[in-house]
Design goal:
alpha/beta, seven-stranded mixed sheet, 15 helices, Aldehyde dehydrogenase family protein, six-stranded mixed sheet, Aldehyde Dehydrogenase, Chain A, domain 2, Aldehyde Dehydrogenase, Chain A, domain 1, 2 domains
């Protein structure tokens, strides 16, 4: 059955037909996604605008109930949802279950609680003398967070559950309405999310989903006059174009953009811990994740051992069908992206980097696979060191002194998440303060899901996750009164 658009609480036939969603592992068609016309995207934004007044006045307890009920539906349908996510994204079965669908449900649970968080902050009273503004008096004040309005959520292809849920759930919790424009490669899971929300009782127009394989649908979702805010996860280049449109309309932005995470590994580091963390770049989403520690900056004393251990780690990873038990490295999202990653591998060779592991296309018959690839003897000026590859490719740059290591880590257009491995935790925390990144992992790649997430420099604008997401989807209003 062909997937239809979700606009104003109705399932709507697309004006411009359908396009194929392809399984990156088998190259077979998973399903047909609808091609929305620009007019249909505008209609979705208009439906969200019409629904905003009622939803923004809905009691927080009711918003919480609906978000909780949506999480119930997602958990009930977890197996078919995970199977679809695996097929359209190329994630392994374990990742689709645990890091996509399960995290999506958890985020709806989190923001069901978030809907009940206080939105008022009392400010100290101020004593004003008599003057042009009126008589003397004591003035009280509140800072109150209010919903922004209609939010366009443009989501990434690497996680078709966690990323959309991380936008939609806090936006709804704060009383906003949304237009969701999923990535064209794997949009079908987001329609399942819309079904879960509809079953949970979300009113018509509060959630709308539109798709398209061409840029027009996304452009309309950004430039619509009914849209007050755009939340985008994707490349820096696309984010810049969105920001230009938002700037002309003075629309709020939340931008989660690219990354080229530096992993500073010092001579006193636990190398096995560092290898485990860095090695996830080879496997987790096949390197298609902006937080990956893809740029290893290794102190001379452990450089050769670290390279040797990383090469051994990459060589032990099973690459193949993500539906098969034991597979660690699945495909990248598309043939075009595989070609892009392979072009960077060839570029690394030409730039003079030493290929230590990988570099050849796995002989698997079908599917868009890239072998886990490791380059050593890299320098900071190489494009493979400076540019986001978004694939299972790790580059290693040596350094001598602490100051040199910090300078190399900061010598990047990006600043999303960096990492420090050192046996001296006090030094690691001190170095974290020198790194120009939105997050720093100390001896770990783990995340605290209440900690703010976002980037410095070309890695983004704003912060979300935890209560920070509720703030991101809010406007602050001052209320002042005489005492």
């Amino acid at each position: 059955m062909n997937q239809r658009l979700f606009i104003g609480g109705e399932w709507v036939e697309p004006d411009d037909g359908y396009y194929e969603v392809v399984d990156p592992a088998t190259e077979e068609t998973v399903g047909l996604a609808p091609e929305a016309s620009r007019e249909q995207v505008y209609a979705a934004a208009a439906a969200a605008r019409e629904a905003f007044a009622g939803w923004s006045r809905t009691k927080p307890e009711e918003r919480a109930r609906i978000l909780d009920a949506a999480a119930d539906v997602i958990q009930r349908e977890a197996e078919p949802y995970a199977e679809l996510a695996r097929a359209e994204s190329g994630a392994t079965t374990a990742t689709a279950r645990g890091m996509q669908v399960a995290v999506g449900a958890a985020r709806f649970r989190r923001y069901a609680r978030g809907a009940l968080e206080p939105v008022e902050q009392a400010l100290p009273p101020q004593i004003n003398a008599a003057g042009p503004m009126g008589r003397a008096g004591v003035f009280g004040a509140l800072a109150v967070r209010r919903p922004v309005g209609v939010v366009t959520c443009i989501t990434s292809y690497n996680n078709p559950w966690a990323n959309p849920a991380g936008k939609v759930a806090p936006a709804l919790a704060m009383g906003n309405t949304v237009v969701v424009k999923p990535a064209p490669q794997d949009p079908l899971s987001v329609y399942r999310m819309a079904e879960a929300l509809a079953e949970a009782g979300v009113p018509p127009g509060v959630v709308n989903v539109v798709t398209g394989s061409a840029p027009a649908a996304g452009e309309a979702a950004v430039d619509s006059g009914d849209v007050d805010m755009v939340s985008f996860t994707g490349s820096t280049e696309v984010g810049q174009r969105i920001a230009e449109v938002c700037g002309r309309g003075m629309k709020r932005q939340l931008m989660e953009l690219g990354g080229k995470g530096a992993a500073l590994v010092f001579d006193d580091a636990d190398l096995d811990s560092a290898v485990q963390g860095i090695g996830t770049t080879f496997s987790f989403y096949s390197g298609q994740i902006c937080t990956a520690p893809t740029r290893v900056i290794a102190q001379r004393g452990i450089h050769d051992r670290l390279v040797e251990k990383l090469a051994a780690y990459a060589g032990h990873l099973k690459t193949g069908d993500p539906a098969e038990r034991g597979t660690v490295v699945g495909p990248v999202i598309s043939a075009a992206h595989r070609d892009r990653v392979e072009s960077y591998i060839e570029l690394g060779r030409k730039e003079g980097a030493r290929l230590v592991a990988g570099g050849e296309r796995p002989e698997l018959g079908k599917g868009f696979y890239v072998a886990p690839t490791l380059f050593a003897d890299c320098t900071s000026g190489m494009r493979i060191v400076r540019e986001e590859i978004f694939g299972p490719v790790v580059v290693v740059v040596p350094f001598d002194t602490e100051e040199e290591g910090i300078a190399l880590a900061n010598d990047s257009d990006y600043g999303l998440i960096d990492y420090v491995w050192s046996g001296d935790v006090a030094r690691a925390f001190r170095i974290a303060g020198e790194l120009r990144a939105g997050g720093v992992g100390v001896n770990t790649i783990g995340r605290n899901m209440e900690a703010p997430f976002g980037g410095f420099k070309r890695s983004g604008v704003g912060r979300d996750v935890g209560s920070y997401a509720l703030h991101a989807y809010s406007e602050v209003q001052a209320v002042v009164w005489p005492g």
